[in-house]
C-alpha cells in the first residue's frame, strides 16, 4: 500500500487517453482512491461490485461512467465489502472480472487499466491477474518491497 498504484493507473490512463485511445479505468479497491481522485462518489450504487453481479446488459448501462475525453471509469464503493460474500458465492469467481469485461462491446475500449487493492490475497487482485494481459507493480527500492514483488510475480504466473 501507498507506493503509487492509483497514481500510476491514473497517469497511464491519462497518457493513453491523451493519445486518442479509449481507456476504461476499473477501481477494484474498496478504499476507492481512484474513484475519489476522478471526482466520482464512492457511495453510489453503480460500482464494481454491482458490475460484477449484474447481467452484461445491466452492467454496461449503469456501471461505466464517462469521466473525461476518451476516459471511462467503473468506480469502487466504500461498501464493496458488503458485496464480497455474494461475489465469492458466484461460480468461477476468479474469472468473473474477465468474463464481465469481455461482455463489454468489442472494440469499445483500446485499454482497460485495473487499479488493485494493496493486498495480493484479495479476491479482486486475483481476478485482475486473470483478466490482465500484463501488469505494473510500483514499488519502493528496498528489500521488503523486492520480496513482495517476487511474491506478486509468483502469484500472477499461477
Provide the β-strand percentage band.
Answer: 5-15%
CATH superfamily: P-loop containing nucleotide triphosphate hydrolases
CATH class (first level) name: Alpha Beta
**How many strands, which pairing sense, and closed or not: the largest β-sheet?**
4 strands, mixed
CATH architecture: 3-Layer(aba) Sandwich
Number of domains: 1
Rg computed from alpha carbons, rounded to a whole number of angstroms: 15 Å
The number of helices is 8
Instruction: Characterize the overall form.
Output: globular
N-to-C series of helices and strands: HEHHHEEHHEHH
Mean pLDDT: 87
Briefly note the CATH topology name.
Answer: Rossmann fold
In angstroms, what separates the terminal alpha carbons? 22 Å
Summarize the structure.
With 158 residues, this protein is of the alpha/beta class.
What would your notes on this structure say?
The chain is an alpha/beta fold and 158 residues long. The chain has one domain (5-156): P-loop containing nucleotide triphosphate hydrolases (Rossmann fold, 3-Layer(aba) Sandwich). It contains eight helices and four strands, in the order H-E-H-H-H-E-E-H-H-E-H-H. The chain has helices at 5-18, 33-37, 48-53, 56-62, 84-89, 96-102, 123-131, 143-156; strands at 23-27, 65-68, 71-74, 111-115. It has a four-stranded mixed beta sheet. A hairpin with a 2-residue loop joins strand 2 (65-68) and strand 3 (71-74).
Key features of this structure:
8 helices; alpha/beta; four-stranded mixed beta sheet; Rossmann fold; 158 residues; AAA_dom; globular; P-loop_NTPase; DNA_Partitioning_ATPase; 4 strands
Amino acid at each position: 500500500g501507498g507506493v503509487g498504484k492509483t497514481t500510476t493507473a491514473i497517469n497511464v490512463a491519462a497518457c493513453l487517453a491523451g493519445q486518442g485511445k479509449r481507456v476504461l479505468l476499473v477501481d477494484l479497491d474498496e478504499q476507492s482512491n481512484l474513484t475519489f481522485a476522478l471526482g466520482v462518489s464512492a457511495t453510489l450504487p453503480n460500482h464494481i461490485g454491482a458490475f460484477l453481479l449484474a447481467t452484461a446488459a445491466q452492467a454496461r448501462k449503469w456501471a461505466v461512467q464517462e469521466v473525461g475525453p476518451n476516459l471511462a471509469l467503473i468506480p469502487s464503493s466504500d461498501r464493496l465489502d458488503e458485496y464480497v460474500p455474494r461475489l465469492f458465492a458466484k461460480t468461477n469467481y476468479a474469472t468473473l472480472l474477465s468474463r464481465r469485461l469481455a461482455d463489454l462491446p468489442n472494440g469499445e475500449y483500446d485499454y482497460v487499466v485495473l487499479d488493485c487493492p494493496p493486498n495480493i490475497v484479495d479476491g479482486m487482485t486475483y481476478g485482475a491477474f486473470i483478466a490482465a494481459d500484463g501488469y505494473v507493480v510500483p514499488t519502493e527500492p528496498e528489500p521488503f518491497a523486492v520480496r513482495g514483488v517476487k511474491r506478486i510475480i509468483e502469484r500472477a504466473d499461477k
